[in-house]
Amino acid sequence: MRQTIRLSALLLALAMAASGADALTIKLGSIVPKGSPWEQALRRLSAEWARISDGAVTMQMYPAGAAGDEADMIRKMRIGQIQAALVTMSGLHKIWNGVKALSYPLFIRDDAEFRYVMEGLWPLIDRELEARGFKAVFWSTGGWIYFFTRLAVTRPDDLRRQKVWVWGDPDEILAWQSMGFQVVPLSSLDIMTSLTGGMIDGMMTSPLVAASNQWFGVASNMAGLRLSPLWGALIVSLRTWEAVPANLRPQLLEVARKTGVELAPEIAKADEAAVAVMKKYGLRVNEIPPAAQAEWEDVVSRGLPLLEGTAYDRAALAAARKIIAEYRSATGKR
Fold this sequence. Notes:
Elements: H1 2-19, E1 24-30, H2 37-52, E2 57-62, H3 70-79, E3 84-88, H4 89-92, H5 111-131, E4 134-149, H6 156-160, E5 163-166, H7 170-178, E6 182-185, H8 191-196, E7 202-205, H9 207-212, E8 221-223, E9 228-237, H10 238-241, H11 249-280, E10 284-286, H12 290-307, H13 314-331
Parallel strand pairs: 1-2, 1-3, 5-6, 5-7, 8-10
Antiparallel strand pairs: 3-9, 4-7, 4-8, 4-9
Helix pairs in contact: 2-11, 5-13, 7-12
């Protein structure tokens, strides 16, 4: 695999030289809304890469789903139609499903815990992605995922009466269905039309995403239950990354990772602001009573075994559990 990738990178570099091209143009796809903090961060990074490389490495942006949804973008990267993508766990798991260990509902409790687990697990994730032909140049948090639904949800039975969008992962669909939930797999680009047409009643997403896409206009109830961290990574095809001049790669990687670090607090603030704005336009935030919280924890604890070894990589889950246990022991949390 590595020899094939290196050969592809060499051929790409030779083709550029033969054509007299002075710059490597990286076509970058994302589903992030135009003008969002994510898109702004990508544009800053693009400008920095161009500055550092004196124009030798440039980016061409395709935001807001212009290059398709996350599954489409991964496929297009594999065949060379685009060279990079900003994707969430839902896209990354198309490359390696071990990334989903960080996104199981109620598995990780807060931002500090997520950062600790991610830093501990990242070397494994980075290695597995690279072995499959992708270079992750940064990762960052994107807020937290909640239920947004047409009718109020506080307990599991409230959600069971509504149709909820999920990504089209067969094992995950089966697990939700086995717990009595009605789930509808769709492309993320079809959510709004499916909401207005009655095909779905809600989704699991972050406040900023719900606000940016105006989904809360139909799914106007937000359950006050943090399901899992929303996180993602900027990935570049390894053959493209290895076509970047070797002396530039460390500098480009450094500024990319700085971008990921700076993006996290921006998203946290934007999430809070999004909730405040949506509440002014009719969003209802439904708090979860302690008894209902216990019901949710029971439901998801029974659902996880159905996914281990299929949708969720056993080794990655074991590593994540170990890191979480270390963190909670060190901080006195249970």
